[in-house]
Structures are given as C-alpha cells and as structure tokens.
Design goal:
Elements (H helix, E strand, L loop, with lengths): L1 E2 L5 E7 L2 E9 L4 E3 L2 E2 H5 L2 H7 L1 H6 L5 E8 L3 H19 L4 H7 L29
Parallel strand pairs: 4-6
Antiparallel strand pairs: 1-2, 2-3, 3-6, 4-5
Helix pairs in contact: 2-4
C-alpha cells in the first residue's frame, strides 16, 4: 500500500490461499492478470465482475490500469484476492475513497481457510462409517 517512484500504487490482496500483487497506474481501465486480459484469465464473467467491483463502485474504472500478479488457490479465491488488492491500492491512491470501500466491505480480508484433515477421520470432519459388529 504505497506509491513507488514511477507514480504507481502497489498493494497486496489475499483470500484463502490466493495472493494478488496489484499495481494501479493512471490509464484507460485495462485490467491484466498474469499477462492476460482479466476476461480471458478468469473465464467466467461473474468472477471478473466481482474482482472489479471496487473500481466500478468508486467510479474510477476508466481512471486506472490494473496489472495483477495472481498466485495460489483457485479462480474464485484469486478473484477475491484481486478485489481486496484493488481496494487497498485505491486507498493508497486516494484516501477519500476509503470510507466507501470500507462500507462495502472491500478492505476486509476474507479470513476463511480450509480446515486441516484430522487423524482418524476421512477429512476435516467426516468420520468412518459406524459398524455395530
């Protein structure tokens, strides 16, 4: 959550085991994920819409270009991480947007993680079938 010497705003977003390193640069609204357009990268329109919600809600969609490096997890987790990263980068760019982003819940990291597998169980909670005899 800082500005570098080139005038870019850098932030990190996280969700589950996904991490998104986001760079906001002044531009026309192009969104690139791992070197590919966001529509092509995610494949599902709902994930792209969810990821870009902070830009749409603050009215800054055509003001910034987004360059994101996504890593870990699946596409849904990466979409949530990208949304978190974009929101944090927007706060670094303009502190006045913070109240709107916070009210919508974009600055809160979704802390839900996968529960670990327990010894003697088939998963985190599923037990082996009971046998009377």
């Amino acid at each position: 959550m800082k500005q570098d010497k080139h005038g870019r705003f850098i932030a990190t977003g996280k969700r589950k085991s996904s991490v998104a390193r986001v760079i906001l640069t002044p531009g026309d609204g192009t969104v690139t994920c791992n070197g590919r357009p966001a529509d092509e990268y995610f494949g599902r329109k709902v994930l792209v819409t969810s990821a870009l919600k902070p830009l749409v809600d603050t009215g800054t969609m055509s003001t910034y270009n987004v360059i994101a490096r996504l890593d870990g997890g699946g596409t849904a987790g990466q979409s949530g991480a990208l949304r978190h990263g974009i929101a944090r980068a927007l706060c670094a760019a303009d502190e006045n947007l913070r109240a709107d982003l916070k009210k919508e819940g974009f600055l809160t990291r979704d802390a839900r993680e996968t529960e670990r597998k327990k010894a003697g169980l088939k998963g985190a909670r599923k037990r082996p079938q009971f046998s009377k005899r």
